Amino acid sequence: MFDAMIQPFQKRLLDQPAKWLVAQGVGADQITLTGFAIGLLALPAIAFGVFWAGLLFLAFNRLADGLDGAVARINGATDRGAFLDIALDFVFYAVFPLGFAIAEPENALPAAVLIAAFVGTGSSFLAFAAIAAKRGETTEEFSNKGIYYLGGLTEGFETIALFVLMVLWPPLFPLLAYLFSAACVVTTLVRWTHGWTAFAEIDLKEQAPQDGQEARPLTQSTSTQDVS
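Given the sequence above, the corresponding structure tokens read:
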């Protein structure tokens, strides 16, 4: 919900550190992989109740997530970098609540519900991005992203804010997990509706007879651009 608004501030904040990293020969993919590896350490830290360490690993992971994009803008973005960034982000989001489930048995159900809700938001996000890329569509709000970025009520900023609250107040984990899961359900339903409506309109336009031609079946796409 707030990702588009904070992007300009994030860009200004990370431009200089990114230039320094580029001068040291550090690439965007290196930052992505390092940030992911260190971020995964939040799982055992939280599982063993060392929440300050979990917060530290979370902060490093998110810093790396911003820096890899800033470095990519300087060196030139790549499809591999975009793939790594989004794929590893979704794994990190799913792993983080798992630490709370291991730490306390009563956290298992809310953690499972939250991870299931993440599947809804993640799958709807990626499904829309795949079809949008096939049709050559882009979004002006997130023009710096490597794939079509469909916003919603629960985006990256809100998810990280949730994780910070969970680490700072672990006893509130079940309540926070259920509340955010409900917000994720809303996001998923909105994305499903948006995709159903947007792509149906495009399909109908493509299937409309033109210049005496017969309408094409709705299952056939007229786009020739493949997802790279």
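The two ends are 27 Å apart (CA to CA). Try to locate this feature in the token string yourself.
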